[in-house]
Amino acid sequence: MTNPKYTLYGWHLSYFTGKVLCYLNYKKILFVHNEVDMTTLMWRIKRKVGAVVMPVLVTPEQQWIDDSSLIIDHLEQRFPSASVVPSTPVQRFASYLMEAWGDEWWVPIAMHTRWSYPENYALFEREAGSHLLPKFPVFVQRRAVAKVAGTLRGMLHTVGVRPEQFLVMDRWTIDMLDSLERHFSEHAFLFGDRPSIGDFGLVGTMYGHLGRDPWPARELIAPRPHLRAWIDRMAKAPVATETDLLAEDAIADTLAPVFRVIFAEFTPLLEGINQQVKAALPNLEPGLSLPRVLMDVDVPMGTGKFRRKALPYSLWMAQRVLDVFREMAPGEQQSVRDWLTQLGGESFLALDIPRLTLRGMRVAPAQNSLQSK
């Protein structure tokens, strides 16, 4: 098909804008990147999608899409060449799982490494101010940025960025970055020599936060040159290709420690959120969305424990992974089960999630949602 022009609204500072930017560049899709100003963010975007969010993609037909996963889904359908969705079952399932983990689990780490280190604020203030109010004096820009920063800092406790947990978070981050460094010392991307949707999910936290904010870029990423090189490859649009994932639907041994962590930590988080969602559904008035934030949930993190608020949206991302599994033929499903069993991940398939639909930044039960589908 032809390559019509899209418009992407979002900042380089933004977690999920980085995910979509890397994807658009990789697919060689013609687009205009507009840094979001105050009017666009607070009025146009809110009016079009119902929430103050970024990134937002505007299609040539003037459809406004505001979720990074939905943006990629839309573009994959329109531009199937060099698909980021693996064709084989285990790699496909693992890739969507990695996207969900990158989108949901890493948010506290990204927020912590940005907002717990004051030296990062100068970059945020400069870029956010120039984007929000580009024609205003610097002192006005700074006031606007301070308000935005206050809103973002207000989310820290919700996602688990709490001083008593910093040591657990820091140890976990070092261990996980070391695992990724070992993997990328042997492989260009997660599943071979070209990126998958899993790479784009994971790069969100690395592109705009850990790999770009001064403190984590210097202290966490620079000492790990292979991880740094992967981030740069993702940002600089690697050559799109139809081949070069690992042969025979293999997952590299170097990713085994990462997936074991996912099953040991991310699955319990989803289970905890699911319990709260199921408890909330009977009292939810028909047609309403679930609250964006529920109560605290305690989960393992490394050798410690981690507490954060339960976000029902995370279940929608898990449902997305489970739907990939459900769409497979029986033989393909067995291949996925075998892989999960090797890594202790069978419980992920046992998640009994009520069917959810996405409504902006919230989720709502679908019809007959008290029964899983």
Which outline best applies?
Answer: globular
Query: Secondary-structure element order, as H and E?
Result: EHEHEEHHHHHHHHHHHEEHHEE
Quaternary state, please? single chain
> Could you describe the largest sheet, including whether it forms a barrel?
4 strands, mixed
The number of distinct β-strands equals 8
Number of domains as seen in the coordinates: 3
Low-confidence stretches: 368-373
Description:
With 373 residues, this protein is α+β, with helices and mostly antiparallel strands. It has 3 domains: 73 residues, Glutaredoxin, CATH 3.40.30; 224 residues, no CATH class; 38 residues, no CATH class. The protein contains 15 helices and 8 strands. The strands form 3 sheets. A 4-stranded mixed sheet has the order 2-1-3-4, sandwiched between helices. β3 and β4 form a beta hairpin. α4 packs parallel to α10, α5 runs parallel beside α10 and α6 crosses α7. The longest helix has 25 residues. It is globular. The two termini are 35 Å apart. The relative contact order is 0.13. The C terminus is likely disordered.
